[in-house]
């Protein structure tokens, strides 16, 4: 793929974030819908989900790919807490779980208000240990990525799990289908994607909220819209630029919401994660494949 075909530069600032000699590498193909990439720096590997195949995969830098977990209970999004434990969103179990260091699975959330969650989708962990996740209905709409069922929750919410108490609280209840989410590098804001336009003539945008007292979301406002497909998973670099999935590749937005440019990917992108030794390698899950490309910036994510 030529540089012209690979990059769509919309703003000169994007040229400072991409490496001209870098190329998009397909690391693995054979998934049905690849999702939820998370980098393990201490293990030097990437783990991601293959939802319809009900498995999780592991890639290591020598190119080897193995099955990390099967069956996976239709795991979608993944992240790590500050202790390095894997936190996962299960469509099949309609729950958020933590994988302990000895391999045991701990259920962190599976209901709210006495009713089952819809199908937890994506998850992030704040430095205070609190866990924030989205709960759209994608995983119960059919048997392809979970188990078909009627939703029990009246709305599709964003939740916060308190670290000391384990208490679950709905922090946003006005989304059509909340999807990807990420904290700004300074953790003063939370950004949340709404992918409702898959089923409605409405949002394909990312909203931003201020975080008050580390617990509440206020001052909801529009951040950006995706002009190709819908926003799914996204992450920030250390300069506060937001890198998000889209139908035609990865879109990069400046902190002021300006579209800086795109990395064109031949399959619909679902999610991204920075990784590698210096966190300057962008890993991309896209339909059937796992891709990567080196950048000249570094991911703002922990551990």
Write up this protein.
This is Gluconolactonase. The active site is at residue 232. GO terms for molecular function: hydrolase activity; metal ion binding. The chain has 303 residues and is mainly beta. It has a single domain, classed as TolB, C-terminal domain (Neuraminidase, 6 Propeller). It has helices at residues 3-6, 12-15, and strands at 7-9, 25-29, 34-40, 45-50, 55-59, 65-69, 75-80, 86-90, 95-99, 105-109, 111-112, 115-116, 123-125, 131-135, 156-161, 168-175, 178-183, 189-194, 205-212, 216-225, 234-236, 242-246, 249-253, 259-264, 269-275, 281-286, 289-294. The strands form seven sheets. The protein has a five-stranded antiparallel beta sheet with strand order 1-24-23-22-21. It has a four-stranded antiparallel beta sheet with strand order 2-27-26-25, with no helix packed on it. The chain is globular. The protein starts with a helix and ends in a 9-residue tail after the last strand. 45% of the residues are buried.
